[in-house]
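Structural prep section.
Before we set up the soaks we want a predicted structure of the protein with citrulline in place, mainly to decide which crystallisation condition to try first. Input record follows.
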Amino acid sequence: MTTLQTITAFVRKPGLSFPQALSRHPRKNDISLAIALNQHETYVEALKKVGVIVEYLPPQDHLPDATFIEDTAVILEDKFLLCPMKELSRQTETQLTSSALGKYLDRLTLDSMSTLDGGDVMDTPETIFVGLSKRTNLRAIQALSKFTSKKVVPVAVTKGLHLKSATTFLGNNLLIIDPTRVDSSNLKSFDWIEVNPSESYSANCLALRNVTLMPAGFPNVRDKIHAHGLKTLEIEMSEFEKADGGITCLSIIIPRQLSIH
Ligand code: CIR
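Run finished without errors. Recording the tokens verbatim:
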């Protein structure tokens, strides 16, 4: 008998101001809160299908981007690193995450010159890749490297918001990647599922056990993931895409059961 590792996911439903989320997407003025709430529910159902324990944080009606909880903290073994977010409108979110996760895990912080969004941090078994992006600076990446025994490697993000908007780790040495959006020279030791720039949104997937949660509407990409022996769960993400967010952005994943300390 194999025992499955416990995985906990923190999530937050979109609040009333979600349609005003920060975004450069051409359809950003066309976000439906009702559809987003439905899509969020499907996302949570998918997490539960994979056997993840889901913990809801209270919605924040006055913080439009607060559903993109991934950006507020990075899990580093049994601690969490609070992200000093560059966007002023998102900084309160960090404090909320600090109180929520602080009940379970020890907190690490960065200095006030560092800027970091969790969407830029791609953890792999030996190396943590961190996007050098519009949101994350080198100072933060250097400071993060002091908190982990893994190698920390900066990756320049040349197009789009975060590193994980362009590439995510699917396990088993496999990346899904749109190489036109990042400097991929440090990512060559992985196997790649390469997606075209027109399918770029599908490069943000969430791998949990042998299941990949992916955005709906990319049958070619889905088939390529299946060819690697992985199952997929497809989720309609249209409203989050219009707010520049993807599958990973909607949760903080902690690969263990939590107990209050
Ligand atoms: C923002 O611009 O901060 C949000 N509208 C989208 C954040 C997406 N988060 C992520 O990719 N981890």
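Observations: The first helix runs from residue 33 to 49.
Flagged for discussion at group meeting.
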